[in-house]
TrEMBL record:
InterPro entries xref list: PSP1-like, PSP1_C
Biased composition (Basic residues): 366-389
Name this protein carries in UniProt: Putative PSP1-like protein
GO CC annotations, alphabetized: cytoplasm
Superkingdom of origin: Bacteria
């Protein structure tokens, strides 16, 4: 997830632009769209598309109309229309692919009220923008202190200043509805700027903050995952996972998004299984399914009332018994079909190069006291023999 100018240096910090994935080349942002039309010229008489895609902090992207017909390319810093004042962002996409992205996000590219691009950012614009960005850490800390003093049940996770410094957007998470009218007054008085509060979900917060998951890799939501599908406990049940909330929950406190990654494969595999609600009728009684093994195509059954005695059957055997039940043909019992599963005793490693035994240090050592007594007895026996001689 890094471009050539963001290669890692000392202490894990970026060696080049030091923007942690928000550099001008835009090669290390998870929302980057590859412009495969960049090296192709337009047909004769075809005017270039007059809208561009601009990225701001926190991977926020918006579309703007280039009414001034500026020559823009990916990575240019531009001043865009905002309310109030103007904002500063980085161009991430130009040309015909912008129309495709606007259709994908359901934005009308024929809308005349679409905000426009004022100009390419001057050095003064960039200096004001960077000064506002440098204030964000201190403003976030102060805003949290104000929220705690008012005893508001909310967490301010991030702050984003507008390019001209005239407005600050505070992103927060909360379990319930929060009355932050007094908080806005206190923050406007403390920061001397216009305040906007925007609530986000816990998954969006985890995506902004980042982190390392239980798998040892960076969080999917902060590296490549752009759409958050709903995850429920049914996904864990289909995959025969233990319903332990501590293991199934991610850093956001919600169910892990990776529970959906292999769900379709499990659902396809379960289509080949007989229904777990199907009871097997035998002469010894009805048998109920207790568990299944999707990978080995095995099912465990037990008789009603004999819940501790399980029998292992393959899916083909279960289908055979079900077909016999439908034909009303007698089935003696599950013992005739049950498999005898023996543990695999095949060793995965064999000593073929003559290494020493791993248990060579497990032999108990003789104590020092015993060895001394043995030496004394030997010496006494020698003396007695010499005296007798």
């Amino acid at each position: 997830m890094g471009c050539s100018s963001c290669s890692t240096g000392k202490d894990g910090q970026p060696r080049g632009c030091k923007n942690n994935g928000t550099c001008g080349t835009d090669g290390c942002n998870k929302l980057t769209v590859f412009d495969w039309l960049s090296n192709m010229s337009l047909p004769n008489g075809h005017e270039p598309f007059d809208c561009v895609e601009v990225r701001f902090k926190n991977s926020r992207k918006e579309f703007f109309r280039n009414k001034e017909n500026l020559t823009l390319s990916i990575g240019d810093v531009v001043a865009t229309e905002s309310s109030p004042g103007h904002d500063v962002g980085v161009v991430t996409l130009v040309g015909e692919l912008v129309k495709v992205q606007m259709k994908k996000k359901k934005v009308d590219f024929k809308d005349e009220n679409l905000p426009k691009i004022y100009r390419k950012a001057s050095q003064k614009d960039i200096d004001i923008w960077q000064a506002a960005r440098d204030r964000e850490a201190a403003v976030q800390k102060k805003s949290r202190e104000l929220a705690i003093s008012l005893q508001l049940q909310m967490k301010i996770s991030d702050v984003e200043f507008q390019g001209d410094g005239s407005k600050a957007t505070f992103y927060y998470t909360a379990e319930e509805r929060v009355d932050f009218r007094q908080l806005i007054k206190d923050m406007a008085r403390a920061f001397s700027t216009r305040i906007e509060m925007r609530q986000i979900g816990y998954r969006q917060e985890a995506a902004r903050l980042g982190g390392i998951g239980s798998c040892g890799r960076e969080l999917c939501c902060s590296t490549w995952l752009t759409d958050f599908r709903s995850v429920n406990t049914a996904s864990a049940r289909y995959q025969q996972l233990s319903l332990n909330p501590q293991k199934l929950a991610g850093q956001c406190g919600k169910l892990k998004c990776c529970l959906n990654y292999e769900l379709d494969a499990y659902l396809d595999a379960l289509n080949d299984f007989p229904s777990q609600e199907q009871r097997l009728k035998t002469e010894k009684g009805e048998a109920v399914c207790q568990k299944i093994d999707i990978f080995k195509q095995l099912m465990w059954f037990c008789y009603e009332g004999q819940w501790a005695n399980w029998f292992v059957l393959t899916t083909d055997q279960v289908r055979e018994i079900i077909s016999l039940n439908k034909k009303k043909q007698p089935v003696a019992g599950l013992e005739e079909y049950a498999l005898d599963l023996t543990a695999d005793t095949k060793t995965e490693f064999e000593n073929v190069v003559g290494q020493d035994s791993l248990t060579r240090f497990d032999k108990p050592k003789a104590s020092k006291g015993r060895s001394k007594n043995k030496k004394r007895r030997t010496n006494n026996n020698r003396r007695k023999r010499s005296n007798n001689a």
